[in-house]
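Sorry, explain these tokens?

***
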Amino acid sequence: MKRLQPETPAHSLEGFNNLTKSLRANLYFVSQHPENLIGRYPAAALETMLHDIADRIEAVVLAASRQDYQPWGASALMLLSDGPGAVDAGAVHMHLNKSHLCAHTYPDFGTADDPGCLRIDLDLTSCGTISPLRSLNFILDCLGPTAAVIDYSVRGFTRDATGTVLFQDHPLNRLPDALDPYWHTAFEIFDARDTFPQTWQMKLLKRHQSMAQDLFLRRIMQIGEVCSRD
């Protein structure tokens, strides 16, 4: 992995927020010719996209790596710090094993009955003050998927100034509430309310598709009784 910021001898964690926040997006692009989609997302393009996401959440990219695979597929990975200026010596707000951003592509060439598709998996995990949810609408706007499965979770605990234990540092009732109005109009939204604390999931399905594409996506995304339509 190529380091993009100088490594300092020691990292001091100052006023650190111990909550780990993870945003995971499985983005589907349906096409009769998925090989054309694959060509749009080589490793270099994935890395550029990850840089744009890091800028959107005001994170500093410390190191980056990318890899193309044969015959198909690509990956890109970044280690992040907590915000602008965070790489100053003695004041690094990060855990290298917690703050990261990665993307992987997975092609499927379909069958006589199913269309082909490309899936891009994005994973943004952060600790400290970074909120991965700030990147959600940007990711959807940039990539424009045919369908998506979005998971968000907050793990661990932190404390406020009085020492009270907190399991969440930002209000969130339902994951669809984090979406811009456009997505509520252009997509069917299925809110899979999880019974586990600080865990959310939703599924997005583009409206006005062909019946074959719609049925295919509902099957592979397992849209059924467990999801309530938003």
User: Anything to note?
Assistant: The chain has one domain: 15-222.
